[in-house]
Design goal:
Elements: H1 2-34, E1 58-63, H2 68-71, H3 78-86, E2 88-93, H4 100-109, H5 113-116, H6 137-143, E3 148-153, H7 155-159, E4 167-171, H8 176-192, E5 197-202, H9 204-211, H10 218-235, E6 244-248, E7 268-275, E8 281-287
Parallel strand pairs: 1-5, 1-6, 2-8, 3-4, 3-5
Antiparallel strand pairs: 2-7, 6-7
Helix pairs in contact: 8-10, 9-10
């Protein structure tokens, strides 16, 4: 009987530990989803006024989920590598968690998630997104009397304070047709000459990573090659003697597809900048912030 009693006690203890771990993990995740910066109710002051511009237009192209090795593969992304040879390049090191929304916030605010007041996790639905309260590149442009435009997913409709953004074109999918619409909108914004900062977000590489087999599947390379053509389309509308383009990612993808943890492949991203004001060369490692 003693033997069975100890087995029963062990079973009860195991169940108790499992329940405790479940609630601990659930509460931990809930706290991340609910996290807000200590500066959310009292935003930090904006930066100092900018000096004279070195470029007529600045265009930022964000290729969601793009890996460093994919971006460096000439057979997959030939045009991107042409730009790399002409401009400045580096390897970006991002922070945790390696999700899109926190990284987007870092890239436009210049602050890590504990300060930026961007979502600390990818919100579970669009209604859970909220606008950045801290200074960001769109607010900086507005203070400088400049105009900005954005072509990307609906996520940004909720993240970017509407008063800071001059014009936008939003899509609701993460596929090649959606990326084509975003690239076409970016070209319209650029050719209009009305906007000094244009941001375009391309998502199909990340989609291939999540839903089409990951970077080890041929769908991944095909998506990256299509994006390379869209980058060429956008850059083709610029005059790189007067304009500047930045191309980077928010996170990488593990080979089987996915991200969010601290796997080395997801914590580094490509960065290429070319055009007016840029000193060409390889600049090694830089922090995403």
């Amino acid at each position: 009987m003693k033997k069975y009693r100890w087995i029963l006690l062990g079973l009860i203890a195991s169940i108790g530990i499992a329940i405790t771990c479940y609630f601990w993990a659930t509460n931990l995740m809930a706290s991340l989803y609910a996290y807000r910066s200590p500066f959310s109710s009292q935003p930090l002051a904006g930066g100092l006024p900018a000096n004279q511009p070195v470029a007529r237009q600045v265009v930022a192209i964000v290729v969601d989920g793009l890996r460093v090795d994919t971006a460096a593969d000439v057979s997959i992304m030939p045009f991107l590598n042409e730009l790399r040879q002409q401009g400045a390049s580096a390897v970006v090191h991002s922070g945790l968690p390696s999700y899109s929304a926190p990284s987007w916030s870092v890239l436009v605010t210049g602050a890590w998630p504990d300060i930026s007041d961007g979502p600390a996790m990818n919100p579970t639905d669009l209604e859970s997104y909220y606008s950045w309260t801290q200074d960001n590149i769109y607010a900086s442009a507005k203070r400088a009397g400049l105009s900005s435009a954005l072509a990307g997913h609906d996520y940004f409709k909720f993240l970017v304070p509407s008063d800071d953004l001059t014009e936008a074109a939003f899509t609701q999918e993460e596929t090649d047709p959606a990326d084509q619409k975003n690239a076409a909108a970016a070209v319209r914004f650029i050719q209009s000459g009305k906007y000094q900062y244009v941001y375009v977000h391309l998502l199909q590489v990340d989609y291939a990573g999540h839903y089409e087999g990951g970077p080890i599947d041929p769908h991944w390379n095909a998506a990256a090659t299509r994006v390379d053509a869209l980058i060429k389309q956008v850059v083709g509308s610029l005059d790189l003697s007067k304009d500047t383009v930045l191309i980077y990612s928010d996170h990488g993808q593990i080979k089987a597809g996915g991200h969010g943890g601290q796997d080395p492949d997801v914590m580094i991203q490509p960065f290429i900048m070319v055009g007016a004001g840029i000193k060409p060369g390889e600049y090694g490692d830089i922090k995403q912030v």
